[in-house]
Specification:
Elements (H helix, E strand, L loop, with lengths): L6 H34 L3 H11 L8 H27 L4 H20 L19 H28 L2
Helix pairs in contact: 1-3, 1-5, 2-3, 3-4, 4-5
Length: 162
């Protein structure tokens, strides 16, 4: 019996390899971003910067009277680092990737919700889509959110495969 490799088999193999490499690149990039941003939440200047937006936000505002500016920032940082580490582990452990990607999704949904409440979203004297500095800072989270959603769906598919 002879085995022949068809063009279709070669295309499937190349596609599978490319998909794996693409997922790994997305996983590495978003994990690095979350871990890096999480680390920065432990620094006083970043804690003060986050407090400017988060202190009056319903989701985080309750923490500031209880644990202060540094404590609230550290809680946020620990969540970001945890999500990043779980995403990084997601290449080997799909359950970790799913939990981490859902944490990342939640992180970026929350930060994008600042578009509706934070000052400086639209540049003063202009109308949307002329983003101000805060709007430009937050706009990147649209892409980061999309990456986390993709990785969550990928992990879920890997967990449900027979």
């Amino acid at each position: 019996m002879t085995h022949s490799i068809t063009r279709l088999d070669l295309n499937r193999t190349a596609t599978a390899r490319t998909s794996l490499d693409g997922r790994a690149a997305l996983r590495f990039g978003i994990a690095l971003i979350l871990i890096w941003f999480g680390y920065m939440k432990f620094l006083p200047y970043e804690a003060e910067g986050v407090a400017g937006l988060a202190q009056t936000y319903w989701l985080f505002g309750w923490m500031y009277p209880l644990i202060g500016v540094a404590g609230a920032s550290i809680v946020i940082g620990v969540l970001e680092i945890t999500g990043g580490v779980l995403i990084a582990l997601g290449g080997r452990f799909a359950w970790a990737g799913l939990v981490g990607a859902l944490m990342g999704t939640a992180t970026f949904v929350v930060t994008l919700s600042f578009f509706f409440t934070a000052p400086g979203i639209v540049h003063e004297g202009y109308a949307f889509p002329a983003l101000g500095s805060t709007g430009q800072f937050l706009a990147k989270d649209i892409g980061l959110l999309a990456i986390c959603v993709f990785l969550a769906l990928d992990a879920r598919a890997r967990l449900t495969r027979p």
